[in-house]
Amino acid sequence: HPQGLSKQRQEGQTMSRLAHVLAVGRWHLKSIGADADADAEVEGIFAQQQELRRRRMRKLLFKGASKGNEQDVQKAIDSGVSVNRVDGDEDPPLILAARIGSIGVLRQLLDAGAIIDARSSTQLETALYCAIFHGHEEAALFLLSAGANPNLAAANRDFPITLASRMNRVHVVRALIQYRARVDSHDTDNNTALIYAAMRGSLPVAQALIDAGAADAAGEDDRTALMFAVLETSKDHLGLVKALLRAGAPLDTRDDAGETALMLAAEVGNVRAVKRLLKAGADRTLLNKESKSALILAREQGHDRVVALLEA
Fold this sequence. Notes:
Blueprint: H1 7-31, H2 36-67, H3 70-78, H4 93-100, H5 103-111, H6 127-133, H7 137-145, H8 160-166, H9 170-178, H10 193-200, H11 203-211, H12 225-230, H13 235-246, H14 261-268, H15 271-280, H16 294-300, H17 304-311
Helix pairs in contact: 1-2, 2-3, 2-4, 3-5, 4-5, 4-6, 6-7, 7-9, 8-9, 8-10, 9-11, 10-11, 11-13, 13-15, 14-15, 14-16, 15-17, 16-17
């Protein structure tokens, strides 16, 4: 081969020469009166060589996608390998690229016709879900801009927006909202994105969800976001309590133990949350399933400041 000739061109020339040799061979067989079986054997040899090359290129595609190697991916695409075909428990190349956050490879695959909402073989994760899960925010934003469906859940009924909220990916949550993700989706634990924001004390995420119309619906253990927010005494959690109350979060909803947000706040001694709840009109006379009020719970735990507030 001439110096500097690329490997790809070498392979192409090799296949061309093989095709020429086999064509000559077929002509020779016919000229000497060879039977059809011999002609078919020659055809079979050519087909085998083509299949071997397709397998090599396919392997190169998957390896390139999983490593973010744009050159290898493009070589495989140029050879005509399908970017969507998978066998057995293989994951589509787009999923592999999303897991490492390679925007360049994602773009190559989509330009070559990759199905943007293709799913992984076992957990049924989309490329968008994988990008969020592995912390590749820019890749997630790129996929959304390219048309990824923001409302496709994985096999465990975990939606991109519940995942992003749970992982405190503020920019991704905002982008998902922009691309019309359903903000009130419940995951397999019956939690919403707003509940996860309350658990984490993430006011920016919670505010984005509230502004998008998210409702404070009951989730895990029949607890609302407000209930989860009052369980912690940090400044961020208090900010969440305020935001939820401003948004009209239900005050006297009960969890599976019959407790309200006020009871939970009293039980953990969250003085500032108790003040906010009482000011908002929370009912201090309600009893849980053990016939205990917020006042009794506060007394049992020795939270004297809360007791004083509830007795006032």
